[in-house]
Amino acid sequence: MNSETDLAPAVASILEAARTRAGGDEALDVDAQSLPDALERAEADGRVPVIAEVKPTSPTADGTREDDPVELAEAMVDGGATAISVLTEPSHFGGSPEALERVREAVDVPVLRKDFVVREAQLDVVDADLLLLIVRFVDDLETLIEAARERGFQPLVEVHDRAELETALEAGAEIIGVNNRDLAKLEVDLETFESVAPEAPEDVTLIAESGISSPADVRRMREAGADALLVGSAIMDHGAADSDVTENTRRLTQTESAPTAADGDSED
């Protein structure tokens, strides 16, 4: 794990809270839906594979959405989402394991648990199809990946640079997310994915995370090698509580079949 002096204050606060959060009482046994299979189905249907994120708020969001998580997830699936990510971190993102449990019962696509897991017991909080592990937050990544797979989870391992990608690959990661947001400054730069993606083996499922807000961004990440995109704020649109989540999702999942003129909304 990198030094906390390299983290933005908001991120350091998230990590500190994660360290004190309780885990489960016994190991889970998850019957997970395959994300790679879901991505293949989306491609066959002519949709851009998008993992749409139910995120009530965040340290970088403009506001908070109070919508029912199940209604949001269903709207995202109606808009073409290939999978759903649900924040379960309560202190900084307004999430909960209960919200994920309800969403997973309601939708027929893979569901990712988005949280900040730092030790094995924290794997055992709630069933999900995928579970996020952040290289920068974890001391023994290989052990956590193995422990997650033993429970049936598909680990999504998040990296930010080439060194972290190498760490993830050495630990056996098969699904890797490249976060375009710098955890030190909280700045977003899509060139992050473009610099890391060429170093990833072809057999790795590669997901571009953060900063994807327009059809132009979608095309850019796909051209750089993204097998899927993880999109939260652009779909949730925290600044407008009445924003149409279905339409926000559709405008990104239908990008590759849409005319280039649709890029007129790139100011998002």
TrEMBL record:
Region spans: Disordered: 241-268
Domain Indole-3-glycerol phosphate synthase: 28-242
Pathway where it operates: Amino-acid biosynthesis; L-tryptophan biosynthesis; L-tryptophan from chorismate: step 4/5
Source organism, top-level taxon: Archaea
SUPFAM superfamilies per UniProt: Ribulose-phoshate binding barrel
Alphabetized UniProt keyword annotations: Amino-acid biosynthesis, Aromatic amino acid biosynthesis, Decarboxylase, Lyase, Tryptophan biosynthesis
Gene3D superfamilies reported in the protein's UniProt record: Aldolase class I
Catalyzed chemical reaction(s): 1-(2-carboxyphenylamino)-1-deoxy-D-ribulose 5-phosphate + H(+) = (1S,2R)-1-C-(indol-3-yl)glycerol 3-phosphate + CO2 + H2O
Enzyme Commission number(s): 4.1.1.48
GO molecular function annotation: indole-3-glycerol-phosphate synthase activity; phosphoribosylanthranilate isomerase activity
GO biological process, one term: L-tryptophan biosynthetic process
Family: Belongs to the TrpC family.
Family matches, as NCBIfam families: Indglycph_syn_Halo_TrpC
Stated name of the protein: Indole-3-glycerol phosphate synthase
Organism this protein belongs to: Natronolimnobius baerhuensis
